[in-house]
Amino acid sequence: MKVKTILVSQPEPKVENSPYFDLIEKQKVKIDFVPFIHVEGVTGKDVRSQKVDLSNYTAIILTSRNAVDHYFRIAEELRFKVPDSMKYFCQSEAVAYYLQKYVVYRKRKIYVGKRTFTELSPLIKKYKAEKFLLPSSDKLKPAVPNLLNELKIDWKQATFYKTVVSDLSDLRNVYYDILVFFSPSGIKSLFENFPEFEQNDTRIAVFGNTTVKAATEKGLRIDIKAPTPETPSMTMALEKYIVEVNKRK
After folding, report:
1. Do residues 240 and 228 touch, judged by C-beta distance below 8 A?
2. Over 60: is that where the pLDDT of 249 sits?
């Protein structure tokens, strides 16, 4: 069956040169973006209940823009003035760049990894004397605490925000040729919103091994996978599949 409509379970890209927009133009398909999950911040009281006193920490480990937003939100709620001496360890350049929303970049001590948390860990290791705080969601990948424990540093994780299933009732009677998922939480959201979901002719696209596992456990047939050596991005995997099926008579 030809592909005409795609639902991506993430927010619409904010950049004009997103490869999704190229895909729409080149393959003449309709793509809708609907977040299947969203983030909700916890309260300052919730953070305190985790035995976290913001004034105890000299360094912050930031793995995402959400972590940046919610750290400074909680600091404001608890009337904690973040000191100029605070060190920031950002997982990627994108996170470090986003930090400028809250701090004067050139006046702060900011250390930036290339992309993955593993690449950030040598920078953290250089500053073993610091007391590190890791503000994160309730869905923290086990690899992060495992790496920090291996570094033998003084650190603490605290939940500053939670990943919550979105209300998808507007999609109840809407059909798409392909559903695209990027996390196990997205798969969970699909079945929490539509417990009776039957795949039938709907193609399922998944990104990453943990998403593959979650989809398989729910009995879904996976038609498109990324990343692969041939298609390292989801848009490349989608385009390859669309070109193949849409040229069939």
Report:
1. no
2. no
